[in-house]
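ok so for the tutorial part 2 we go from a plain amino acid sequence to predicted structure tokens. step 1 is just haveing the sequence, like this:
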Amino acid sequence: MMTSSAAHRLPPTDLLDPEGFEDPCFLVVDHLEFPDVSAVPEVQVLEGGQVLTFRFGNGYGAVVARQDHLPALTAFEFCVLDCTPPAVRPTFDTPVASALLAGLSHGAVGGLLRQAQALPRHPALQAADAALRDELF
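step 2 — the prediction. this is what the tokens look like for a chain of 137 residues:
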């Protein structure tokens, strides 16, 4: 038999909303967006900033780091990546960036990302394409 207090208690409506918890706490992270870039980045939130890793269909990619403690006009770093196997690694053999670039604005990084995305297909992918075209199936 139920007691009167148990009969009037309503079950929690959500497992994430425990009974009696009245002050929800949310982690709000400022999300970086580059609307002219088609690749969706892998995002890592670190203490003091974010690291975004982009991979493009042309075999290249880019890593973008934002440091929260710097002014917005100089808060970004940028590096082009070689995303062909065996592992993703920085590359300085493109016309986009011949080194790690630091002290950049959001707008400058957006322009660099568009350039990296527009690079011709990576030579390793071109060679693989040619090998597949010559293969008899």
